[in-house]
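During the second year of the project, the team shifted from modelling isolated chains to modelling whole assemblies. The rationale, set out in the original proposal, was that interfaces cannot be judged from single-chain predictions alone. As a representative example for this report, we include one of the complexes processed in the last quarter. Its constituent sequences, exactly as entered into the pipeline, are reproduced here:
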Amino acid sequence: MIDASRIITEALVQSGSDVFIGYPITPSNLFYSYSKERFPEFLAGPDEISVLQWMCGYSAAGKIPVTATAFPGLALMTETLNMAYMMELPMVLVITQRLGPSTGSATTGAQGDLKFLDGIISGGFPMPIFSPSNFNDAWTLSNKAVKTAIEFRTPVIILTSKELVMTQRSFNINSLEPLEQINRTPKVFEPPYKPYKAGEDKVPTFYPLGNNEYQTRFNASTHDNDGLIRKGTPESLANTWRLREKLEERINEYSFFELDTDDGADDLIVTWGVSADASRDAINLLRKKGKKVSLLIVKTILPISQNIYNIIDSYKTVTFAEENMTGLYKEMIFGKRKNSKVKVATKFGSMLTPSEIEEIVN
Amino acid sequence: MEAVKKILTNTKMPFCPGCGHGVCVRSISKSLENLGYGSKDVIIVSDIGCSGLVDPLFATHTIHGLHGRSPALGVGVTLGLDNPNKKVIVIQGDGGATIGLQHILEAARRNIDMTLVVINNLLYGMTGGQMSGLSTNEFKEYKHSNDDADPYDVVNLAHQSGAAFSVRVNNISNFTDVLKEAISISGFSLVELSSLCTSHGLKKVSEMKHYIVAEEKLTNNRPVGVSIKQNTISLLDRAKILTPQFNSKIKDGIGIVIAGSAGGGIQSAAKMLAQAAILSGLYATMKGEYPITVGTGFSVAEVILSKKPIYFTGLEKPNAVLVVTEDGWNKVKNRITDNSKVYVDAKINYNNSFITKDFLKVGGKKGAALSAVSYWVKESGVFPIEALIKVTENSKYAISLQKAIEGAEKLRELVYVEKK
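Output from the structure prediction step:
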């Protein structure tokens, strides 16, 4: 018997994460206790703001820090998350969704934080958010999270839900594939070294604070290639634009999804995270009854790649299956306006069931 | 350490004419140079406000963060550095010091090896000269402010929290020497430097003595705070591997709800049920529900067993509901459907269609749930009872757990006798 908290923690460590810094919060508590056992370094912060500030310090010093929290903690971390994004500091945050608003119900799962995360970087900048749908995803996406954080110099979020990370399952751990080893060597750059001067891949070469080779500067304010505050200069604005471009232009490098196609199907179920398993069961129920229907499980939930739009556009009817009130991912794709092509199977306060999805699809 | 180089760049000071911040920056630079630090040996962590304009002045590594958060950022940098000979200097103003007061206290409590310089010009300079939490009552009166709350004494607060060295310096001619002392000390040092704001506050250094707090110097002799690194082993290596050695005859999935009270072994019984099922070649899921105060009230566990892989882990219509206490009954009674076979302890109010047994009597408070589970396992024939006994073998409570299972067997014998 094993839970996804254990799998994610282990995968993050095996992928090269150096330190876990946290403040315990339900339902992310298992990450805290497993990390205390497993990470090479573990620090208990006095509050979530300190946690993320300490992580930024570690990251700027060349380490890969990890934390795990839920919405109330994430809300406190938001200003510092913007700082980490602006400074281009690699790190991983595991967010376990629970029922809100506010403190809501700490021990009830939900998929309600998506819209908050979509706008969490002031200015609407993209930030990679991975949402595992099962234990195997938990393993591989944690590895991808560390890799993406390092390669793109960005915070990355692993978005989970209470039922996914706290439910114990029988599981064959031999089905977990060896994880990709992630290269941490600084990239070659065109001299002279400037901490925010990027090449074609739009990601500047990272040298940590305290290194003996190059003076380096990190800056949370609008800055030039030297890392110094510059208000509204072409160079500093281009530097800020670059934060968007580096993630959007190479989105396919970190955009993951699973598509189970039923040839000739007009119907598509689109789902993510904890609702994926209910959707897998729903697909089986529907197909047994002769209904042709395909299933799209979105794993890089944000930013949304063109591939996702293309798949959705190729079906006549799309049902979004989510554990929230109105279908928040659906609203990312289609907005709030009613659309005859779109249906939502949603649930608030408990898990969305396979039969409820089946009913909406029919 | 690298060869000594100039700590300051040639950049012109960005401050207003007469502003005290320039003196503070030069003093920091001079103290570092006098102590032999090279530019790449130093990390300047800057805050927001006038004191946050310092980055281009320093030829060192720099990191410019958020308002009030720089002491916390400095803690992360200090602990994250591989080379303990590097020096972290955090610079913030009196505004930042109150926004992030908790961060200062935490750095002091942990005695992190860094120096925090609080440049106190008694007001918020960048936003128009409003009073700060470090503005003295005399200065507030001078500025006709009606806030009469006494200012924070950050020097004393840092000291009380455990800082190795905390000091307030008003005389600018002593800035460099005191900074040198602070930087040289192992552990957390806080240096509050009194500074002029000529745009919104006082115009002359000579006026300051009427409006500032007296100098003080406080020390604690404590170990320096470090982050301890540990060698660990894989969490997967510690996972219990269960290889099937029994058989199960079930074809479809079965959902079981087990309900009782906190401390009654409900979650353990559920886990043993799931593990025994895995030993019998089944897939299993298990989840628990209990109040956030885990030591009181109900405790409910859900277990799903199936011959096929299980995707959805919710349990809409339980096939079996095992209840051993009133707390548990009140929590799950509404989940019972026509589909559910219900087993309740004899002490609970029940209706005649339920199977009522003395689980509590034979299993005891902590074993009742396991007695109920083993009773159900035997009756349903889901897998051999030996699988359940097998999972108890390595438990430190093996004897009492096996007694609970045997007790359930006696309950079955009673049924037999009754039928006779």
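Chain A has a mean pLDDT of 97. Residues 4-175 of chain A form a domain with the Rossmann fold fold (CATH 3.40.50.970).
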